[in-house]
Amino acid sequence: MTAQLRLVSSDGWDGPVPVWCNGAAPLLGSAVTYPADSGTPVTSLVPDDLPAHRLRFGDRPRAKGGAGLRLIDTLEQTRLDGRGGARFPAALKWRAHLAAGGGGVVVANGAESEPASAKDTALLQFRPHLVLDGLACAAEAVGARQAVVWLHEGAHAVHAAVVRAIDERRAAELIEPPVRIAVGPSRYTSGESSAIVRALSGGPALPDFRRVPAAVSGVNGRPTLVHNVETLARTALAARLGSAVRSPTSLLTVATAWGRTVVEVAGTTRLGQVIDGVLGPGAARTHQAVLLGGYGGSWIGPHMFESLRASESAARLHGVSFGAGVLMPLHQDSCGLAETAAIADYLAGSSARQCGPCVFGLRALADQLAALVDLGARRRDLDRLQGMLDEIDGRGACRHPDGAVRLVASAVRTFAADARSHLRASGCLHRGVAVFFPVPTGQ
């Protein structure tokens, strides 16, 4: 199957959103697809070198002193939050860094640990200078002495794109803090902020149970900002436009068995429109649910995903989150419980193995769900599954178990009819056609 690729705007118009249109400053402006059977992206975009970047966005504004304080105010006014999953307000991190004395470290987190996401990859391949602009602005604003780009060791194309961009900026003799690249293992948890801080401090790239925020005490005890690359790209736009960015766009990855498509949409766009725009007109009606936010996200049913707008504030009104900006539509013929069991097994295998909930809880959770899928569970086992969810939630040394709990709990709610059918051992309600996003093997 070849998906039809279109960028969908809130008014139904198909095509790239013009740059600086109505205060909405697109980061990409066109769709980018990473086919499952190829590492070569499919898109009309051309990667920006430094001259093309300057032509598109202009020179980077300086962010030292008063300009940096004004930029922090802008981030607060525009409510810029983290786009790596946590959605923590960026301005609060910057103020905490300054209150801790400044002069620490700023990290651009480009280690896209979420297997279903490709937005960070697309940004670093096609708009690397926008990310580096944001990194430079953040470093200047908080007086950081080090600026780091954190990547996975297996992301060779992304690494090459960032190296080229850094070399171009050095050749142009831009006045900005020097940047270095640090590489960590390609694991699900190695892109988590505390894992990054731990690795840059000389330890293993594993999540850490932190009582003090990294912005206060991070790498080797110094104040440290860790921002997703999309957050920094949006910081670069905010530095140029100020609070005029009234209608920010969202980068979303629609993940299916055929690949991952990154689209950019206005916050008023309905998720049903996004799915139709990527998979073809009417596609949303052929899907029974959507996994929102990625592997640690939540399943939502058709009534919600067809009408929910592409904004975090709208999602939180329904008790869910966009997380890392991932949509994983589940076709009518697929079993949501079986797909969830495969992801839960992957998350259990991705454990940092530093506490009981990770080592034992996640494995027990995955095994119990697998028994339900295999028609080997009974009603008491469903009660036992719920008990496991209650025991694990919030008790891990890091947040990895919480994501697994959120995923499984939402599956039990969303696919309640499927669970009843499996418990009666009367069989699955679906044909089991493999159209969902494939779960990676090994860690």
Describe the protein.
This protein is an alpha/beta fold. About 40% of the residues lie in helices and about 15% in strands. The protein is built from 16 helices and eleven strands. It has helices at about 50-55, 65-75, 90-100, 120-125, 130-140, 155-170, 195-200, 230-240, 270-280, 300-305, 310-315, 335-350, 355-375, 380-390, 400-415, 415-425, and strands spanning about 30-35, 40-45, 105-110, 145-150, 180-185, 225-230, 250-255, 260-265, 285-290, 300, 325-330. It has a seven-stranded mixed sheet with strand order 2-1-8-7-11-9-10, with helices on both faces. A hairpin with a 6-residue loop joins strand 1 and strand 2. Helix 2 (about 65-75) crosses helix 5 and helix 4 (about 120-125) crosses helix 5 (about 130-140). About 50% of the residues are buried. The model is unreliable at about 1-25 (pLDDT under 50).
Nearest-integer average pLDDT? 87
Widest sheet: strand ordering: 2-1-8-7-11-9-10
Number of helices: 16
Tell me the distance between the termini. 29 Å
List low-confidence stretches: 1-23
Question: Which outline best applies?
Answer: globular
Count every beta strand, where a strand is a DSSP E run of 2 or more residues.
Answer: 11
Strand/helix succession: EEHHHEHHEHEHEHEEHEEHHEHHHHH
The major β-sheet equals:
7 strands, mixed
Amount of helix: 40-55%
How large is the share of residues in beta strands? 5-15%
Rg (CA only): 21 Å
Structural class comes to alpha/beta
